[in-house]
């Protein structure tokens, strides 16, 4: 793998963009021929304004149907680009299911993909055969059995720390499955929906949705909590039937270190992934 560079070529500066989107009608973040993607629409809008090519690097390349409450990207633009009202101008061009929250020149050594400390995802489930309210239909998944939050938390806690999550990552050639899980817990919100929150330094392909599916198996009483840790340690990929639907998944936060640690994070991340093309959860 060619090491990406933090150097910005002469005459250019790095722009940080924070955005949010409803992934329902998108075929994911990354550009794909003939399909509607967030990257394609954002880059088209930005190029229309700047009258130049725009190539974005994003913190987490979400898959079809996955949402983002707070996504982060960077793009290198001519340093004389006017950015004061750029977020407003972009939102005038973008459709209503994508909104730019902020667009500002990034500090030295900023990198949206290789700089973060962690990414945090949320998963919402309407359990017990409850009727899904119309305003919850896009960002939650229904489940016919009642889930035991206590059992799900017992199981999820056993997976915290750095492990090889091969079991819960759908195969992609050359990818690393060693991840550090920092947070994995469940609660019920004020509407009674089951809400899972999971934070890691990075995620493998389908890792979050596989972990959600396994936790649900525990929550409905199919397996004991220890089953999740045992399954992880056996390193045998679980069935695709455990992968929960994309629509219940939302990227809610990308956490960056203080500015003076940007370069160290970048170097550490690349060293850990040397020879492997790391992907965000899709």
UniProtKB/TrEMBL annotation:
Family: Belongs to the tRNA pseudouridine synthase TruA family.
Complexes and interactors: Homodimer.
UniProt-listed Gene3D superfamilies: Pseudouridine synthase I, catalytic domain, C-terminal subdomain, Pseudouridine synthase I, catalytic domain, N-terminal subdomain
Pfam families with a match to the protein in the record: PseudoU_synth_1
Name assigned to this protein: tRNA pseudouridine synthase A
Primary gene name: truA
GO molecular function terms attached to this record: RNA binding; tRNA pseudouridine(38-40) synthase activity
InterPro entries from the UniProt entry: PsdUridine_synth_cat_dom_sf (IPR020103), PsdUridine_synth_TruA (IPR001406), PsdUridine_synth_TruA_a/b_dom (IPR020097), PsdUridine_synth_TruA_C (IPR020095), TruA/RsuA/RluB/E/F_N (IPR020094)
